[in-house]
Amino acid sequence: MTATRHRTAPVRRPSFTGNVAWSVIGNGGYALCQWLVLVVIARLGSPAMVGDYALGLAVGAPVVLLANLSLRTVLVTDPNGAHPFRRYLLLRLAGMGLAMGVIALVVLIFHLPAAVVLLVGAAKAFDGIGDIYQGLLQRHHDQRSIAAAQLVNGGLTTTLVASLLFGTSSVAWAAAGSAGASLLTWIMCCVPLAGRFHNRPDPRAKQHTHRAAGGVAELLWTALPLGLASGVSSLTVNVPRYALEHHLGATALGVFAAAGYLVLTGNVFFSAIAQTLLPRLTELRVNGTPAGFRSLLHQALFGVAVAGGLGVWGAALFGSGFLRRLYGEQYADQGGVLTVLTLATVVGGACFVLDAGLSAARRFTGQLAVNAAVLVAAALAALLLVPRYGVLGAAWATAAAAVVHCALKWEVLRRAL
């Protein structure tokens, strides 16, 4: 009698192209909704309200990103599954609690609009907790579920912000709607979607490595350089905003933020490529195929250059008219600002790709040194350009920092390879 063999059907991995498509859909939908939030505040409120909301983002985002410790990247690039997911989650929860404490301290010291800044910070913190669940999905190449969570978050945020702002005419209530949407997405979407993978072993993971790992302290030590680098990078992006708010007030910051949100489409596309590249580049590194690693990076950089060139051309031709139709006449003369910010976004897109290469190569410390140098460059550029050229100076300061960032990251990655 012939013995019957039972075989477990292998889990079919989504294609690289399919994952890029889902990543673009998810990031694009979320970014579109974030931009719509700004449009709603601009239309139902005033440039000063936009400035207050942008200030909340400028304060909360760097603090939350620093407290994130880039644990999602560490989770995705962990070659041997050395730490269980619950360890990542515990560290992320502690980090978000610490971030909210720091944001509250900043509000007290600098006398910022407390309700708006704290609520926007809470929204970012809830997003940060959901992000670590999305990291588990990314590790298993499930970009479709990540896209679903992003679309739910974006849709809820837009709906609640618009409803509360229309009903109350208060930007603080609008910020509360954003925080509520992020909380609901974390609990009702991210947790169930990622729950399927809690007990599924990663194909790269070795057996019995969790006991050998040094616990939360070792994970913290591994993630700290990359987390500091991410926090410094977010601070760098917001330095021109701080300078604008200091020299020209919330209205100028609102105009700059409105123009800046239009280039989020580029960031969405470039971030989608980088997120999908990261697990693939990690596998190429672990498998010892440097030629494939380099080839994939070069293809991605070429794609960024082509798409970015088209974006800058479009902004130069149609930027002013687009701003007028979207936000109103008071934003129409910022076409030059939009063009410069688009150029900065293209250079930043190359940085996304280079960051994916460095993270896949586990070169975390080098990224911290580079980002610290870029922060200094951004601060100097803002100090020189914003007082003299105002909103356009802030845009050029952003572009200058992006060029320095890209050049240094390229050199670090070249040496690493």
Order of helices and strands: HHHHHHHHHHHHHH
Helix content bin: over 70%
Mean pLDDT: 84
How much of the sequence is in beta strands? under 5%
Number of helices: 14
| Sheet/helix structural class | mainly alpha
Main sheet attributes: strand count, strand direction, barrel closure: none
Total domains, how many? Answer: 1
Number of distinct beta strands: 0
The coarse silhouette is globular
Low-confidence stretches: 1-11, 204-213
Radius of gyration: 21 Å
CA distance, first residue to last residue: 57 Å
Topology:
Blueprint: H1 16-44, H2 47-68, H3 71-77, H4 85-110, H5 114-139, H6 143-168, H7 171-195, H8 209-212, H9 215-248, H10 250-262, H11 264-286, H12 290-327, H13 335-360, H14 364-416
What would you say this structure looks like, in words?
By secondary structure, the protein is mainly α. 84% of the residues lie in helices and 0% in strands. It is built from 14 helices and no strands. The longest helix is centred in the C-terminal third of the chain and has 53 residues, at 364-416.
Q: Summed up, what is this model?
A:
84% of the residues lie in helices and 0% in strands. The chain is mainly alpha-helical and 417 residues long.
Q: Keywords, please?
A:
417 residues, mainly alpha, globular, disordered N terminus
